């Protein structure tokens, strides 16, 4: 005799219900310690994220409203043995999060104030500010700053892992532009951290930041550029697929000057796969841009949408890429060089993957930045390990809604990554932490910085309370949460 299905599924749910019932009463006792603007979601909260694949499943979302709320929430979570994850833009795609059961997401988005100093040399923003907010404030004040190329990305989320921007050739990476942070440490204390105050921690947070604390606000370098000069020439050049080898060779051989960057995409339009490059030139006229990218134009694009654009609109082309929701198990890898045959193989993989219904938003992308400025800064200045080795970043990005496709998506994107690694021209596999999948070894992510990072971690977070983003140490995640009675 078989048990009725309803009874069976109730039995399966029982442990979850019992467990949830034992969670600490955040909405009650934590709420009292927080500022009046805070809300705590506890009834099956959903966190809006760029990708639902591998997303955290918290029991509570604390929408903090002041820097001290972050400190109080971290202190509370540590005292109750519950895990927590700070969320800024929610664009992080790595599947390293183990947030579940009684765990907490600290939603930083209300900490999004941005101010530019009177002398236009620094910009200060809250730990929850996203790129569009930073760029809009910078443009309005007549400055440029290092900020990611897509509007939805958390500025600190990007900076704490490295921080690539198309302005990197002029100003370096995000980690090179950070001046000071207010940060909640493993004891739940809010401190100002600078190069002078704590050199080892300062080195560590610029490359592996989420392992060391939650940044509640940051001051970064700003560079005065009057609005009328604050423009870039950029746009899409579409090529027929028979040009892949020639295009990849041309990009590989292109010497990027400080104002230049170039991206390559395999993406669909009206259901058909396309090959698109996105050249970028800060402060250039169309004529200057076309001259600097003459080797790309020589391959005769079939469409050209390039134009001179005010800097507060340069990221608009990435807004479709910023669309939240859906499943996007992305796999990224760094390269010293581009191999034409590899990119032909990836095209074939991509076209085959697109035969799955509902996958047309899937994209392959390659990004190349001018690295001269970043390489003029010592590799030992920050824990970010790849400034002297990676010239190109490749990412396979399957995009769909049906979770039943997860397995096939993983094997497609992993195959692309294997192809990239096979001809990457690097001595050892290396991935930018913010483009990595989450299944890599720590050596691939942290490179030569790994052993010093582990030592700094042991000194600053011995209990491993910051354990959700390519964690440098193991442990704590399996501990049972302390109940209110504990
Ligand atoms: C559409 C898109 C475009 C992108 N473009 C770029 C780009 O141009 N340049 C680039 O370098 N990267 C880029 N990335 C990668 C991006 O840097 C990472 O996805 C990054 O992790 C996103 O940060 P977030 O705050 O949006 O995400 P979240 O998921 O909120 O955070 C990611 C991780 O950072 C931690 N974190 C975030 N904020 C803080 C904080 N204030 N203090 C401590 N830890 C924090 C989180 O706890 C989490 O572990 C892009 C990603 C996407 C999806």
Automatic annotation (TrEMBL):
PROSITE patterns: FAD_PCMH
Obligatory cofactor(s): FAD
GO molecular function: FAD binding; oxidoreductase activity
UniProt KW keywords: FAD, Flavoprotein, Oxidoreductase, Signal
Residue spans crossing the bilayer: none
InterPro entries, alphabetized: BBE (IPR012951), FAD-bd_PCMH (IPR016166), FAD-bd_PCMH-like_sf (IPR036318), FAD-bd_PCMH_sub1 (IPR016167), FAD-bd_PCMH_sub2 (IPR016169), FAD-linked_Oxidoreductase (IPR050416), Oxid_FAD_bind_N (IPR006094)
Taxonomy, superkingdom: Eukaryota
Positions in coiled-coil regions: none
Signal peptide extent: 1-20
Pfam families assigned: BBE (PF08031), FAD_binding_4 (PF01565)
FAD-binding PCMH-type domain: residues covered: 54-225
Similarity-based family: Belongs to the oxygen-dependent FAD-linked oxidoreductase family.
Name of the protein described by the UniProt record: FAD binding domain-containing protein
Record organism: Eremomyces bilateralis CBS 781.70
């Amino acid at each position: 005799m078989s048990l009725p299905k309803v009874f069976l599924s109730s039995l399966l749910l029982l442990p979850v219900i019992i467990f949830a019932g034992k969670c600490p009463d955040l909405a009650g006792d934590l709420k009292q310690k927080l500022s009046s603007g805070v809300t705590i979601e506890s009834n099956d909260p959903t966190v809006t994220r760029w990708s639902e694949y591998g997303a955290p499943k918290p029991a509570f979302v604390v929408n903090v409203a002041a820097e001290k709320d972050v400190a109080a929430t971290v202190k509370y979570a540590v005292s109750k043995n519950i895990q927590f994850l700070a969320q800024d833009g929610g664009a992080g795609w790595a599947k390293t999060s183990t947030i579940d059961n009684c765990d907490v997401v600290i939603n930083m988005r209300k900490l999004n104030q941005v101010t530019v100093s009177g002398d236009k040399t620094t910009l200060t923003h809250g730990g929850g500010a996203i790129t569009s907010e930073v760029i809009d404030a910078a443009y309005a004040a007549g400055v440029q700053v290092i900020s990611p190329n897509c509007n939805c990305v958390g500025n600190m989320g990007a900076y704490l892992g490295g921080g690539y921007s198309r302005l990197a050739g002029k100003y370096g990476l995000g980690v090179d532009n950070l001046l000071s942070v207010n940060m909640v440490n493993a004891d739940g204390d809010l401190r100002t951290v600078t190069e002078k105050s704590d050199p080892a921690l300062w080195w560590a947070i610029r490359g592996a930041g989420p392992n060391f604390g939650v940044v509640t606000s940051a001051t970064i370098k700003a560079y005065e550029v009057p609005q009328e000069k604050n423009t870039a020439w950029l746009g899409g050049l579409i090529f027929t697929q028979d040009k892949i080898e020639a295009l990849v060779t041309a990009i590989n051989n292109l010497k990027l000057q400080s104002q230049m960057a170039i991206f390559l995409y395999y993406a669909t339009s009206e259901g058909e796969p396309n090959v698109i490059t996105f050249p970028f030139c800060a402060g250039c006229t169309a004529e200057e841009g076309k001259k600097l990218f003459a080797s790309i134009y020589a391959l005769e694009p079939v469409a050209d949408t390039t134009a001179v654009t005010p800097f507060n609109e340069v990221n608009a082309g990435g807004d479709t890429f910023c669309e939240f929701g859906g499943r996007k198990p992305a796999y990224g890898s760094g390269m010293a060089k581009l191999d034409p045959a590899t990119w032909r193989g990836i095209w074939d993989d991509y076209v085959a993957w697109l035969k799955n219904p509902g996958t047309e938003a899937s994209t392959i992308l390659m990004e190349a930045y001018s690295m001269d400025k970043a390489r003029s800064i010592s590799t030992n200045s920050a824990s970010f390990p790849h400034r002297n080795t990676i010239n190109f970043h490749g990412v396979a990005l399957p995009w769909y809604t049906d979770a039943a496709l997860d397995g096939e998506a993983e094997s497609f994107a992993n195959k692309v990554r294997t192809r990239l690694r096979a001809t990457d021209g690097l001595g050892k596999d290396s991935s930018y932490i913010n483009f990595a999948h989450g299944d890599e070894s720590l050596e691939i992510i942290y490179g030569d910085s790994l052993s010093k990072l582990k030592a700094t971690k042991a000194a600053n977070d011995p209990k491993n309370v910051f354990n959700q983003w390519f964690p440098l140490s193991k442990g704590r995640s399996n501990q049972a949460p302390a109940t209110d009675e504990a």
